[in-house]
Amino acid sequence: MDANSAGGMPASPSNSEIETPATPSDFTGRNLSTITSVIDSYLQTAPELSIVIPAYNESHKVARDIAAAEAFLKQERLTGEVIVSDDGSRDDTAGTARACVVSPPITLKVITQERNRGKGAAVRAGMAASNGEFVMFADSGVCIPYEQAMRGLTLLRAGKCEIAHASRKRIDSIITNPQPFHRRVLSRVFRSAVDAVLGLPYRLSDTQCGFKIYQGDLARKLYSECLTDGFLFDLEIILRAKKAGARIAEFPVTWSCDPDSRLRPGKTAIRTILELRSIKKSVK
Protein backbone atom coordinates (compact mmCIF):
# COMPACT_ATOMS: atom_id res chain seq x y z
CA MET A 1 0.00 0.00 0.00
CA ASP A 2 1.51 3.38 -0.99
CA ALA A 3 1.41 6.57 1.00
CA ASN A 4 -1.46 8.13 -0.92
CA SER A 5 -3.61 5.06 -0.51
CA ALA A 6 -2.84 4.85 3.16
CA GLY A 7 -3.83 8.46 3.64
CA GLY A 8 -7.16 7.96 1.88
CA MET A 9 -6.12 10.01 -1.16
CA PRO A 10 -7.12 8.58 -4.56
CA ALA A 11 -4.35 7.34 -6.76
CA SER A 12 -3.46 9.46 -9.78
CA PRO A 13 -4.70 7.95 -13.02
CA SER A 14 -2.12 6.50 -15.31
CA ASN A 15 -1.54 7.94 -18.77
CA SER A 16 -3.52 5.09 -20.28
CA GLU A 17 -6.58 6.05 -18.23
CA ILE A 18 -6.64 9.72 -19.22
CA GLU A 19 -9.08 10.50 -22.10
CA THR A 20 -7.55 12.80 -24.66
CA PRO A 21 -9.73 15.45 -26.31
CA ALA A 22 -11.14 14.72 -29.76
CA THR A 23 -9.06 15.95 -32.64
CA PRO A 24 -10.36 17.24 -35.99
CA SER A 25 -9.43 13.95 -37.59
CA ASP A 26 -11.93 12.16 -35.32
CA PHE A 27 -14.76 14.25 -36.76
CA THR A 28 -13.69 13.59 -40.32
CA GLY A 29 -13.50 9.88 -39.70
CA ARG A 30 -15.63 7.81 -37.35
CA ASN A 31 -17.97 10.62 -36.21
CA LEU A 32 -18.53 11.96 -39.72
CA SER A 33 -19.72 8.55 -40.91
CA THR A 34 -22.18 8.46 -38.01
CA ILE A 35 -23.51 11.91 -38.86
CA THR A 36 -23.84 10.94 -42.53
CA SER A 37 -25.80 7.80 -41.66
CA VAL A 38 -28.19 9.85 -39.49
CA ILE A 39 -28.77 12.32 -42.34
CA ASP A 40 -29.31 9.49 -44.84
CA SER A 41 -31.78 7.85 -42.47
CA TYR A 42 -33.70 11.13 -42.16
CA LEU A 43 -33.84 11.64 -45.92
CA GLN A 44 -35.07 8.07 -46.43
CA THR A 45 -37.91 8.47 -43.93
CA ALA A 46 -41.31 8.05 -45.56
CA PRO A 47 -42.87 11.42 -46.45
CA GLU A 48 -46.01 12.50 -44.65
CA LEU A 49 -48.03 12.89 -47.84
CA SER A 50 -47.75 11.50 -51.37
CA ILE A 51 -49.76 13.39 -54.00
CA VAL A 52 -50.62 11.36 -57.11
CA ILE A 53 -51.71 13.32 -60.20
CA PRO A 54 -53.11 11.10 -62.98
CA ALA A 55 -52.61 12.77 -66.35
CA TYR A 56 -53.58 12.15 -69.95
CA ASN A 57 -52.64 14.73 -72.60
CA GLU A 58 -52.14 17.38 -69.91
CA SER A 59 -48.92 19.01 -71.12
CA HIS A 60 -50.62 22.41 -70.92
CA LYS A 61 -51.67 21.89 -67.27
CA VAL A 62 -49.19 19.59 -65.59
CA ALA A 63 -46.58 22.22 -64.66
CA ARG A 64 -49.25 24.21 -62.84
CA ASP A 65 -50.46 21.04 -61.12
CA ILE A 66 -46.96 20.29 -59.83
CA ALA A 67 -46.38 23.88 -58.70
CA ALA A 68 -49.71 23.93 -56.82
CA ALA A 69 -48.98 20.63 -55.08
CA GLU A 70 -45.48 21.78 -54.08
CA ALA A 71 -46.78 25.12 -52.78
CA PHE A 72 -49.36 23.30 -50.63
CA LEU A 73 -46.79 20.96 -49.10
CA LYS A 74 -44.51 23.90 -48.29
CA GLN A 75 -47.33 26.01 -46.90
CA GLU A 76 -48.45 23.24 -44.55
CA ARG A 77 -44.84 22.25 -43.75
CA LEU A 78 -45.45 18.69 -44.85
CA THR A 79 -42.73 16.38 -46.08
CA GLY A 80 -44.02 15.03 -49.34
CA GLU A 81 -43.64 13.70 -52.83
CA VAL A 82 -45.48 14.65 -56.01
CA ILE A 83 -46.09 11.75 -58.40
CA VAL A 84 -47.28 12.44 -61.95
CA SER A 85 -48.70 9.26 -63.48
CA ASP A 86 -48.89 9.72 -67.24
CA ASP A 87 -51.51 7.45 -68.83
CA GLY A 88 -49.84 6.97 -72.22
CA SER A 89 -50.34 10.56 -73.35
CA ARG A 90 -49.95 11.43 -77.04
CA ASP A 91 -48.52 14.84 -76.17
CA ASP A 92 -45.43 15.65 -74.08
CA THR A 93 -47.09 15.44 -70.66
CA ALA A 94 -44.28 13.32 -69.20
CA GLY A 95 -41.53 15.48 -70.69
CA THR A 96 -43.14 18.67 -69.40
CA ALA A 97 -43.50 17.14 -65.94
CA ARG A 98 -39.87 15.97 -65.86
CA ALA A 99 -38.72 19.48 -66.77
CA CYS A 100 -40.31 20.85 -63.60
CA VAL A 101 -38.12 21.44 -60.56
CA VAL A 102 -39.26 21.13 -56.93
CA SER A 103 -37.31 22.19 -53.86
CA PRO A 104 -36.00 19.60 -51.37
CA PRO A 105 -37.10 17.89 -49.25
CA ILE A 106 -40.10 17.61 -51.62
CA THR A 107 -39.48 15.13 -54.42
CA LEU A 108 -40.98 14.70 -57.88
CA LYS A 109 -41.55 11.39 -59.64
CA VAL A 110 -42.87 10.96 -63.18
CA ILE A 111 -44.06 7.52 -64.22
CA THR A 112 -45.48 6.57 -67.59
CA GLN A 113 -47.72 3.90 -69.08
CA GLU A 114 -46.70 2.57 -72.48
CA ARG A 115 -50.25 3.01 -73.74
CA ASN A 116 -53.45 4.72 -72.69
CA ARG A 117 -55.24 2.36 -70.29
CA GLY A 118 -57.51 4.66 -68.30
CA LYS A 119 -57.58 6.81 -65.19
CA GLY A 120 -57.85 3.81 -62.86
CA ALA A 121 -54.64 2.32 -64.24
CA ALA A 122 -52.84 5.66 -63.88
CA VAL A 123 -53.93 6.15 -60.27
CA ARG A 124 -53.05 2.53 -59.45
CA ALA A 125 -49.53 2.97 -60.84
CA GLY A 126 -49.10 6.20 -58.87
CA MET A 127 -50.24 4.56 -55.65
CA ALA A 128 -47.78 1.70 -56.18
CA ALA A 129 -44.95 4.23 -56.56
CA SER A 130 -45.90 6.14 -53.39
CA ASN A 131 -44.17 5.99 -50.01
CA GLY A 132 -46.25 8.40 -47.96
CA GLU A 133 -47.80 7.89 -44.54
CA PHE A 134 -50.88 9.30 -46.27
CA VAL A 135 -51.58 9.23 -50.00
CA MET A 136 -54.00 11.29 -52.05
CA PHE A 137 -54.85 11.61 -55.70
CA ALA A 138 -55.99 14.83 -57.28
CA ASP A 139 -57.24 15.35 -60.82
CA SER A 140 -55.19 17.54 -63.12
CA GLY A 141 -56.42 21.11 -63.41
CA VAL A 142 -56.56 22.05 -59.69
CA CYS A 143 -60.36 22.05 -59.63
CA ILE A 144 -60.10 21.96 -55.83
CA PRO A 145 -57.47 24.09 -54.06
CA TYR A 146 -54.87 21.76 -52.54
CA GLU A 147 -55.04 23.40 -49.13
CA GLN A 148 -58.52 21.91 -48.70
CA ALA A 149 -56.88 18.50 -48.44
CA MET A 150 -56.11 19.48 -44.82
CA ARG A 151 -59.78 18.90 -44.04
CA GLY A 152 -59.42 15.27 -45.03
CA LEU A 153 -56.01 14.88 -43.39
CA THR A 154 -57.47 16.22 -40.14
CA LEU A 155 -60.12 13.48 -40.21
CA LEU A 156 -57.49 10.81 -40.87
CA ARG A 157 -55.10 12.05 -38.19
CA ALA A 158 -57.93 12.19 -35.64
CA GLY A 159 -58.70 8.54 -36.32
CA LYS A 160 -62.22 9.29 -37.56
CA CYS A 161 -61.72 7.37 -40.80
CA GLU A 162 -59.16 5.58 -42.93
CA ILE A 163 -60.27 7.20 -46.20
CA ALA A 164 -61.44 10.79 -46.75
CA HIS A 165 -63.36 11.81 -49.88
CA ALA A 166 -63.97 15.33 -51.07
CA SER A 167 -67.66 15.77 -51.86
CA ARG A 168 -69.09 18.37 -54.20
CA LYS A 169 -72.60 17.37 -53.13
CA ARG A 170 -72.37 18.38 -49.47
CA ILE A 171 -74.54 21.31 -48.52
CA ASP A 172 -71.48 23.14 -47.17
CA SER A 173 -69.45 22.72 -50.36
CA ILE A 174 -69.07 25.71 -52.69
CA ILE A 175 -69.38 25.33 -56.48
CA THR A 176 -67.81 28.30 -58.25
CA ASN A 177 -68.23 26.98 -61.80
CA PRO A 178 -70.95 24.31 -62.07
CA GLN A 179 -71.08 21.46 -64.56
CA PRO A 180 -73.05 22.04 -67.77
CA PHE A 181 -76.69 20.96 -67.56
CA HIS A 182 -76.18 17.80 -69.65
CA ARG A 183 -73.33 16.70 -67.37
CA ARG A 184 -75.53 17.15 -64.30
CA VAL A 185 -78.26 15.04 -65.90
CA LEU A 186 -75.78 12.30 -66.82
CA SER A 187 -74.43 12.41 -63.26
CA ARG A 188 -77.88 11.71 -61.82
CA VAL A 189 -78.44 8.86 -64.29
CA PHE A 190 -75.03 7.44 -63.42
CA ARG A 191 -75.79 7.57 -59.69
CA SER A 192 -79.07 5.76 -60.22
CA ALA A 193 -77.29 3.05 -62.21
CA VAL A 194 -74.64 2.66 -59.50
CA ASP A 195 -77.27 2.33 -56.78
CA ALA A 196 -79.25 -0.20 -58.83
CA VAL A 197 -76.30 -2.39 -59.85
CA LEU A 198 -73.87 -2.10 -56.94
CA GLY A 199 -75.91 -1.01 -53.96
CA LEU A 200 -72.92 0.70 -52.36
CA PRO A 201 -72.47 -0.13 -48.67
CA TYR A 202 -71.79 3.47 -47.64
CA ARG A 203 -74.06 6.49 -47.79
CA LEU A 204 -71.69 8.55 -49.90
CA SER A 205 -72.88 11.67 -51.69
CA ASP A 206 -70.07 11.89 -54.27
CA THR A 207 -68.19 8.77 -55.31
CA GLN A 208 -66.49 10.23 -58.39
CA CYS A 209 -64.85 13.40 -57.10
CA GLY A 210 -61.17 13.32 -58.06
CA PHE A 211 -59.77 14.38 -54.68
CA LYS A 212 -59.39 11.50 -52.22
CA ILE A 213 -57.00 10.86 -49.31
CA TYR A 214 -56.04 7.51 -47.77
CA GLN A 215 -53.90 5.99 -45.08
CA GLY A 216 -50.83 5.11 -47.12
CA ASP A 217 -50.53 1.39 -46.42
CA LEU A 218 -54.26 0.88 -46.92
CA ALA A 219 -54.20 2.73 -50.25
CA ARG A 220 -51.33 0.64 -51.55
CA LYS A 221 -53.12 -2.56 -50.52
CA LEU A 222 -56.50 -1.61 -52.02
CA TYR A 223 -55.06 -0.36 -55.30
CA SER A 224 -52.82 -3.41 -55.66
CA GLU A 225 -56.03 -5.47 -55.72
CA CYS A 226 -57.99 -3.13 -58.00
CA LEU A 227 -58.75 -4.53 -61.46
CA THR A 228 -60.60 -1.59 -63.00
CA ASP A 229 -58.55 0.49 -65.45
CA GLY A 230 -61.23 3.04 -66.37
CA PHE A 231 -63.04 5.81 -64.53
CA LEU A 232 -65.14 3.39 -62.44
CA PHE A 233 -62.11 2.42 -60.35
CA ASP A 234 -63.38 4.64 -57.49
CA LEU A 235 -66.37 2.33 -57.05
CA GLU A 236 -64.25 -0.80 -56.92
CA ILE A 237 -61.98 0.81 -54.31
CA ILE A 238 -65.02 1.72 -52.20
CA LEU A 239 -66.27 -1.88 -52.30
CA ARG A 240 -62.83 -3.21 -51.43
CA ALA A 241 -62.52 -0.69 -48.60
CA LYS A 242 -65.79 -1.91 -47.12
CA LYS A 243 -64.59 -5.50 -47.41
CA ALA A 244 -61.40 -4.52 -45.55
CA GLY A 245 -63.42 -2.85 -42.78
CA ALA A 246 -62.17 0.65 -43.61
CA ARG A 247 -64.22 3.73 -42.73
CA ILE A 248 -64.86 6.45 -45.31
CA ALA A 249 -65.72 10.04 -44.42
CA GLU A 250 -66.55 12.99 -46.66
CA PHE A 251 -65.46 16.60 -46.34
CA PRO A 252 -66.68 19.79 -48.06
CA VAL A 253 -64.68 21.59 -50.74
CA THR A 254 -64.71 24.54 -53.07
CA TRP A 255 -64.88 23.13 -56.59
CA SER A 256 -64.78 24.53 -60.11
CA CYS A 257 -65.71 22.43 -63.15
CA ASP A 258 -62.88 21.88 -65.61
CA PRO A 259 -64.33 22.19 -69.13
CA ASP A 260 -61.28 20.33 -70.44
CA SER A 261 -62.33 17.04 -68.84
CA ARG A 262 -61.15 13.81 -70.50
CA LEU A 263 -64.32 11.94 -69.47
CA ARG A 264 -66.90 11.34 -72.18
CA PRO A 265 -69.74 9.56 -70.34
CA GLY A 266 -72.16 9.71 -73.25
CA LYS A 267 -69.84 7.48 -75.31
CA THR A 268 -69.46 4.91 -72.56
CA ALA A 269 -72.99 4.47 -71.18
CA ILE A 270 -73.55 0.84 -72.25
CA ARG A 271 -70.01 -0.14 -71.37
CA THR A 272 -70.50 1.50 -67.96
CA ILE A 273 -73.43 -0.79 -67.08
CA LEU A 274 -71.47 -3.86 -68.12
CA GLU A 275 -68.43 -2.75 -66.16
CA LEU A 276 -70.49 -2.08 -63.04
CA ARG A 277 -71.68 -5.68 -63.16
CA SER A 278 -68.13 -6.88 -63.63
CA ILE A 279 -66.94 -4.88 -60.61
CA LYS A 280 -69.67 -6.36 -58.44
CA LYS A 281 -68.59 -9.87 -59.40
CA SER A 282 -64.90 -9.19 -58.84
CA VAL A 283 -65.33 -7.95 -55.25
CA LYS A 284 -66.91 -10.74 -53.25
List keywords for this structure.
284 residues, alpha/beta, Spore Coat Polysaccharide Biosynthesis Protein SpsA, Chain A, two-stranded parallel sheet, 11 helices, 9 strands, disordered N terminus
Could you characterize the architecture of this molecule?
With 284 residues, this protein is of the alpha/beta class. The protein has one domain (44-282): Spore Coat Polysaccharide Biosynthesis Protein SpsA, Chain A, CATH 3.90.550.10. It is 40% helix and 17% strand. The protein contains eleven helices and nine strands. It has helices at residues 3-6, 24-27, 30-43, 62-75, 93-98, 119-128, 149-157, 181-197, 216-225, 233-243, 269-282, and strands at residues 49-55, 80-86, 107-112, 134-138, 163-167, 174-177, 211-215, 248-252, 254-256. It has a seven-stranded mixed beta sheet. Strands 6-9 form a two-stranded parallel sheet. The longest helix has 17 residues, at 181-197. It is globular. Residues 1-30 and 35-43 have low confidence and may be disordered.
What profile does the largest beta sheet have? Answer: 7 strands, mixed
Poorly predicted runs of 5 or more residues? 1-30, 35-43
Shape: globular
- The CATH architecture is Alpha-Beta Complex
The tally of helices reads 11
CATH topology: Spore Coat Polysaccharide Biosynthesis Protein SpsA, Chain A
Mean pLDDT: 85
What is the string of helix and strand elements?
HHHEHEHEHEHEEHEHHEEH
Measured as a percent range, the helix fraction is 25-40%
Per DSSP E runs of 2 or more residues, the count of β-strands stands at 9
Number of domains: 1
